[in-house]
Amino acid sequence: MQYAYRFDKETLLKISKGALIAGGAAVIVYALQALSQTDFGSYTPAVVAICGILINVAKEFIKGE
Length: 65
What we know:
Helices cover about 75% and strands about 0% of the residues. The protein has about 60 residues and is an all-alpha fold. It is elongated. It starts with 8 loop residues before the first helix and ends with a helix.
């Protein structure tokens, strides 16, 4: 018997994944704003490389393959 106004487990997982992606995006935007205002001096090339790697890792994680 199906009840109205209820979510099944698959729908809850989809909603949770969407919420995590949206929340993650907000955190990334906040962090990038803070990073853009920070002077890393001679470490700037390393920070840029690490940020590029982290963006690629996040993309692959979201893609799920």
